[in-house]
Write a structure and sequence with these properties.
globular, 256 residues, five-stranded antiparallel beta sheet, three-stranded antiparallel beta sheet, 2 domains
């Protein structure tokens, strides 16, 4: 949809998606498809799978790889590992960090390199939904509710999708990007908490009570550093919120 809008309605006149796609752009596209291209009401356009939501933000202090290479794992009850994924037979395309789940996946990569544009270090953070049940869950819908272009043509729905995107960002265990730690022990505890393989090995070699105590201790140290204002992942979080507010341009997202 974004690429089609740029090719048919923007000044770019190219099928690209490296720039911002605003709510007003989406409304123009819906009206065009409904009244001109297909001559059908937008509620006839039913959402299937492989639906993506994502935001581009400019990274200014570090490289985008400095940031996303520290995305280690994802989740609260279970731990899902992030993987480094090289481009498939595409020279010059970016390396991605990805986390695969049954109904969706998380992606982060250098959008500047992927789109081959001059502006450096545009970070793309993206959720790819593979199953409608996950989208319905994010939107608070029941399993039989239809999702159409009419559904998506609503700022409240955009806010819900962004709330889901930001919640997933917060659930990523990210090695803090800070100037210094208080001591070496904190470094080990932070890495221990974020590393899925290390967590699995500790669980094998400790009884459950000892394991839970160690995980709790590591989690407390991690949370302390993770919430620091100078942790660059918190800066990126604010950039995501600010960018979303500029895309909808009316009602501001209040944050989690």
């Amino acid at each position: 949809m974004h690429g089609y809008y740029n090719a048919m309605h923007s000044n770019l006149k190219q099928w690209v998606n490296h720039n911002d796609f605003t709510f007003s752009n989406f409304q123009v596209l819906c009206e065009s498809w409904s009244k001109i291209v297909f001559e059908r009401p937008i509620e006839d356009f039913k959402l299937s799978t492989n639906f993506e939501t994502g935001i581009n933000v400019k990274i200014d202090k570090y490289s985008q790889w400095d940031v996303i290479s520290r995305y280690m794992s994802y989740g609260t009850s279970s731990i899902n590992e992030f993987y480094t994924c090289p481009p498939h037979n595409l020279k010059g395309k970016p390396i991605q960090r990805m986390c695969y789940l049954s109904d969706y996946k998380l992606k982060a990569y250098n959008k500047s390199k992927q789109a081959e544009i001059a502006v450096k270090d545009i970070l793309r953070y993206e959720i790819v939904y593979n199953e409608l049940r996950k989208i319905r869950n994010v939107l608070g819908f029941s399993k039989n509710d239809r999702i159409t272009l009419q559904t998506l043509n609503d700022q409240e729905i955009w806010h819900k999708l962004f709330y889901g995107l930001l919640s997933m960002y917060d659930a990523i265990k990210k090695i803090p990007l800070i100037d210094t730690y208080q001591n070496e022990e904190d470094i080990f505890k932070v890495h221990s908490y974020c590393n899925k393989i290390l967590a699995d090995d500790l669980k094998l070699n400790k009884n459950i009570n000892t394991y839970n105590k160690k995980r709790k201790s590591c989690r407390e140290v991690y949370n302390r550093y993770d919430k620091l204002a100078n942790n660059y992942h918190q800066v990126v979080r604010e950039k995501l919120i600010n960018k979303f507010n500029s895309l909808v341009n009316v009602h501001q997202f209040q944050g989690l």
